[in-house]
Amino acid sequence: MASKIEWTPRDYAARDIIDRMLSKTDLSYRDIEEKLGGQVSYNRVRDIRLSRRAPVRLSEFIAICDVCGYSTLEAISALMIRAKEIEQGTDIGVANDDPQWIADHLDQFDIAAKYGDTEAEQQAYEDLP
Length: 129
Hints:
Blueprint: H1 9-24, H2 29-35, H3 42-49, H4 58-68, H5 72-88, H6 99-104, H7 118-126
């Protein structure tokens, strides 16, 4: 059984840069797959953008830069800046409603008591610092 791959700050930064590139172009996932001749599939582009499965490979990153019309050097420079921001904790850049990210990082969230469960609400209140 394969083990789950842990994403690093650079992986999240690459995802963010790809998201920015795709947001600025009018290309759909299918358009990208078609222009790359199947080198990067529709599903793979979607998975990269949604932080699912494995992080983006360098060859995929470069191919997406080319298709979107971005300089690979500028994109990598932006990636390194973004990775530093993430490492320093200034901004993780994850949408609050990204269910996959939330599921992968449950340890970072406090679990709130269900409304109406007064015993659990009281316990949660007492546990506050």
